[in-house]
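WARN retry 2 of 3 for item q-0093 after timeout on previous attempt; input resubmitted unchanged.
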Amino acid sequence: MSLVYSTVYEAFRATASRYPTNDFLDILPQTAAKYGIEARTYSYSDAEREVERLARAYRSAGLALGQRVGLMLENRPAFFCHWLALNALGVSVVPINPEWRCAELEYLVAHSEIRVAVVPLERIEDLRRAGLGVGRTLQVTTVDLALLERSASAGGELPGAATECALLYTSGTTGRPKGCVLTNEYFLWAGRWYAEIGGLCRICPGAERLITPLPMSHMNAMAYSTMVMLLTGGCIVPLDRFHPGTWWDSVRESRATIVHYLGVMPAMLLGAAPAATDRAHAVRFGFGAGVSPRLHAIFEERFGFPLLEAWAMTETGAGAVIIANCEPRKVGTACFGKAQPRVEYRVVDEGGCDVAPGQPGELLVRGAGPAPRYGFFREYLKDAEATTAAWTGGYFHTGDVVSVDPDDCFHFVDRKKNVIRRSGENISAAEVESVLLQHPKIASVGVTAVPDDVRGDEVMACVVPRVPLSDAERHTCARAVLQFCLERLAYFKAPGYVAFCEALPLTATEKIQRAQLKDLGRRLLTTEACIDLRSAKKRTAAP
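OK item q-0093 returned
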C-alpha cells in the first residue's frame, strides 16, 4: 500500500505537470454569483501559479511545518489553492463551517490553536472576537492575505506522508466536536482507493468532471471528490450548496460525468415533475450515501444512472471504506456493498460478542495486514482517552448498526451513537443540550432525532419548563428557544421541533435514557405539546 507521493501538494504538482491544460476547477455562474467572484475554469497550470504565489506569501509570514490555519472559504476556488499552498509548507488546514456561530468559533479557535484564519470580509470581526474570547492571538485575514503580517520564516523541515494535512471536526456523543487529525497519507490513500476501485466506479484519467454540492469542511468533498480528481487529472465542479431547482442545469452546463450526493438530494429531485430532459446529461454514476431504499430504484430508472451507496467515516477515511460498486447492488435494501479484502470487520452485540449472520450489531473495522490503522485518522486532537476507547480491542468502533446477509453484503440499520444525521450533517445531541440548558425558562432538556421524509432526521428538543406553561406560552417559549439556539449554534443544529413534557426518561444516576427519549420524541411528535418550527429554521446572515 505504498504511496507514490508524500504530500497532497507533491501529488498536485505531478498532475499539473502531466495535465497542465486540463480543467482543475470549474466555477459555474450561479456559484460565482453566490460568492461574488468570477465564473471561470482554472486549468491545472492556472491553479499551480496561484498555489505558488500563496505559498510564497505564507512562507514570508513565517508559517511553517506543524502549524495550523483556519479556512472559512466554503467551496470557493480559493479553498483549494490555499489548502495546497499551506500543504507545501507542512501547515495543516482547519476548515471552518460558515454556519458556526460564537460558541462554536471560540471552541474551534481555542482547541485547534490555529495561528491564522482566512475568512470572507464580513466574518473578520467574528473570528477576531472568537480569538479575544478565548485569549488567543489570532491573525485574521481575507482571501488575498492582505492583512497577513509578515515575519521571519520559521524552520526548513520538509513535510511527509505522516505530516498532519487537515484537522476536521466531527460531532461526538459527549458535547463538543472532536478534532480528527488527518495526515497526508490519509488524503492520498483516499484518492488512490477511489481511482483504483473500478467496477461501476471506474475512473478515466484526464477525462472525468465531478460535480459536488458537499462542503469542503466534510471528509467526502476533501478526501474523495478532490483527491480522486487531483490524482487523475480530472475537473472538480464545486457548488456553493445543493440547489434542487437548478441542479440539472448545473450538471449539464458543467458536463459532469460523476455526481456526489447525500440521501436528501434524490428525494428532493424526485419531487420535481418528470421532464423530457431527465436523462439529458453525461453522468455515469453517483457516489454517496443515505438514499431512501424506497426511492433508490425509482431515481435510477428516471434519471438513468446508478447511485452507488458507500459507507465511511471521517475517522476511517479510505482505511475501511465499503461501497456497492459492483452488481448485484441489492437496490432498495439499504445495502452498501461488500468489504474488500483489505478491510477486516466484526459485527458485535452490546457485550462485544459477534452476532449471528443476518442479525444487527455494531460495525467494528480495521485494515488487514500489519498496519491496521493505515488510511485512518491519526487521533482525536488532545483526547487520547477517546482515541484509545475508539480502538478498543484493536478495531475501530464505528457506532453504526449494520447487518451482513448470506452474500456478505452490508445493510445499514441505525446509529448506535447519540448523533443526529440531518441532511448530511452530524449533530451531537449533547452539544445542543448544553446550549439549551442555558436558557432561563428550561429546567431540563433532551435532544433527539425524529424522522423527516426529506432530511432523514430532524432535531427535536424535549423540554421540561421551569414553570407550567399555557398553550399560548408554549408557542412563545418554543420560538424563543429556537432563536436562542440560532444565535449560538449553526442553524442546522437548532431544534425543528420543541416538545414540552413533565419529565425526561432518566437513569438512576440522572442520565438521559437515550432509547426511551427517542421513543418519547416520536410519541410527542403528533401531540399538541409539540411545536413545529421547521419553517423558521433557516440559514441566517452572519451576526
